[in-house]
Give the backbone structure.
Amino acid sequence: MRMRRDRHNLAGFANGRRIHSRARQALILAAIILPAVFLSGCSGLVSGKTAASTTPLQTYSISGLITPAAGGSGAAVTLSGAGSGSATADASGAFTFSGLSNGTYTLTPSRAGYTFSPTSQSVMVNGANVTTGANFTATQVTTTFTISGTISPTAGGNGATVALSGVASATTTANASGVYTFAGLANGTYTVTPSHTGYIFSPASQNATVSGSNVTGINFTASVQTAPTYSISGTISPTAGGSGATVVLSGVVTASTTTDSSGNYSFTGLANGNYAVTPSHTGYTFSPTSQSAPVNGANVTGINFTATAQTAPTYSITGTISPVTGGSGATVLLSGPAAATTTTNSAGTYTFTGLANGSYTITPSNTGYTFTPSSQSVAVSSANVTGVNFTAVVQQPHTVALSWDASTSTVSGYNIYRSTVSGTGFAKINPSLLPTLAYADTTVVNGITYYYVATAVDSSGNESIFSNEVSAPIP
């Protein structure tokens, strides 16, 4: 049942707006809260108070994809607009927001070291899940630097070969002044080693650490070689562990180099003496760990190593969502050092396995339910984590049914405005002019009181001042 209030003459125009005299009649607005539980009989609104009737609320989802997966995996996606939330894209760059009512939303992705095209997208939910048009492209942002220096005197520096090893490997040739430069380098530690037939260098090599700026002054002095030199070489196998490995030479001189794609390495320009060769590569161990390589009037070959991949232990996170009516079939999202999604079994139990040490966040979701707590932080520290439990509570969707008295003047239609603060902050919620005297607001949220006013609009687009205000506290 709908209760109407007495009409009153309009006292003025909101924000200085003008309206045709035929539309200057007051609008009497009423609101009815419609919970999801049907009640017998009818109820209405007297003196601005609300009464309940029943209207179920359908919810929907928005899903999308961030490509390529290297940039999309683990990216954060923020939802704003008719509702708010956040999600973490899975290993394929896919993400989903569920439990959404009709309305317009904005999706905004972010990830350190990446930019996104477009930077955000507007998506409208209108009676169906949105599965297309919410995609993004991730582009990695890179900044590089240089390492440079001079080899003197120019007789030994001009045309000298300079090798770079470490985070990246490269070779260049010093110019006529003995100047060399390596460009396009990421942050990290490198080793610079010059060579030139007939010359030895002091120092034989130098370390250079790039940390957010160019590195200059990595200089060497070339001296005419007076004695023959030799080389030490070998191979690290298999190539999966050998390719790109760092090999350090110690002894009479020290040097560092990086193996090629086949795992081969070589140190040249070595005088007679005792040397040791030691390989290293993140994620691998080596057999033997180091080898002696004495040089005595001849090149030394066959200083070989075998690389074995290290296997790090992993752990699990488990928990239960109760009661089973809300826990069974719930979606559980894992974010942090790794991202994953799983579905609880019929008892509401979930498990994430194969996890490295680190801090993770567990977030459950299930259409029609809220969860306590909404998410939990979990630290994995060399042991499985159990008992990360949640309680599911049935959501009770509501609709506010609004009705008003017609203007006694000729008008084209009506607008409805809503706020969560009495007397101020009103925003229009109907997408187009309303030709009838009723409107249902299906986008309300539990636990919030809403305030509504109505206006009339004539054929010239002039709009009346706000009607009386009615409130609708949502349980």
Remarks:
- The longest helix spans residues 69-72.
- The chain has four domains: 14-55+397-473, 60-140, 145-309, 315-394.
- The radius of gyration is 36 Å.
- The helical segments are 69-72, 154-157, 239-242, 324-327.
